[in-house]
Amino acid sequence: MIHDLTGADWRSSTYSQSNGGECIEWAPDYAVRGLVPVRDSKDPAGPALAFSAASWVSFVDAVKRGELPTA
User: Fold this and answer.
1) Has residue 55 got a pLDDT over 90?
2) What share of the chain is helix, strand, coil (3-state, %, to 5)?
């Protein structure tokens, strides 16, 4: 499904560094609709991935627990 994210208010991850390096942005205003859009901050005109809120929470929890490879 394609979502119109034209008016999205993108926020940088709290883990992102200020040098514009490896970070993601997300659009919290869509979370109230049960959707979590995520994009690469270095390519704001590029594609965005959209996850269900439940899937995003599961992913973030797995990262916090160190269950995913980092490199």
Assistant:
1) yes
2) 25, 25, 50
- Scanning the structure block, which residue is given the tokens 């160190």? 66
Tell me whether residue 69 is in a domain. Answer: no
CA distance 65 to 47: 28
Which domain does 52 fall in, by range?
A: 11-64
Question: What does the pLDDT read at residue 1?
Answer: 65
Whether 26 is covered by a domain: the verdict is: yes
Q: Taking Cα atoms as reference points, which of 35, 61, 17 lies closest to residue 26?
A: 35
End-to-end CA distance of the chain: 30
